[in-house]
Specification:
By secondary structure, the chain is an alpha+beta fold. 40% of the residues lie in helices and 19% in strands. A hairpin with a 4-residue loop joins strand 1 and strand 2 (63-72). The longest helix has 22 residues, at 127-148.
């Protein structure tokens, strides 16, 4: 068909299939990278010491984000996440887990939804995913306070 085109065989294809298949819905580059690579995804082995976890969910979107933090004193030595939701939800989980590593427990309250939206370039129609990340951090911080009481 390209040979019959008035542009000849050298005309570029507007949307090559291999590009469209990689990110068919046009997610932002960082969201798509974190979704595809899912750094820090998973859970700690049963009985791992000094692990606290909590989750947050959005009933309307049916998304759930669970964060698990392994502490070394008051610092996050390692963080893991499990997520059920859209690629943006999964990317938020990966970002939050990576961001939390090395932070003190008090620092965890510093990451807010607007900063998450800016860092991942989350569009307005997916703002609830950033709120989910903030809620998960708040939940794990609250769980830590309960365990310390």
């Amino acid at each position: 068909m390209r040979a019959l085109s008035p542009f000849g065989t050298e005309a570029p294809i507007a949307n090559p299939p291999e590009e469209a298949a990689g990110n068919p819905y046009g997610y932002g580059a960082e969201i798509w990278r974190l979704f595809r690579e899912t750094p820090s995804a998973g859970r700690f082995p049963d009985g791992a010491p000094d692990v606290i976890s909590a989750e947050a969910g959005t009933p309307a979107a049916r998304s759930v984000l669970r964060l698990a933090l392994q502490l070394d004193g008051d610092r996050v030595a390692e963080a893991r996440f499990l997520a059920y939701g859209c690629p943006t939800t999964i990317a938020v989980g990966a970002y939050v887990a990576g961001w939390a590593q090395g932070k003190s427990m008090a620092d965890l309250t510093g990451l807010k939804a607007p900063a998450l939206r800016a860092a991942l370039e989350i569009p307005e129609d997916r703002a609830h995913c950033a709120l989910l990340g903030e809620d998960a951090l708040r939940a794990v911080f609250a769980r830590h306070k309960e365990e310390m009481a």
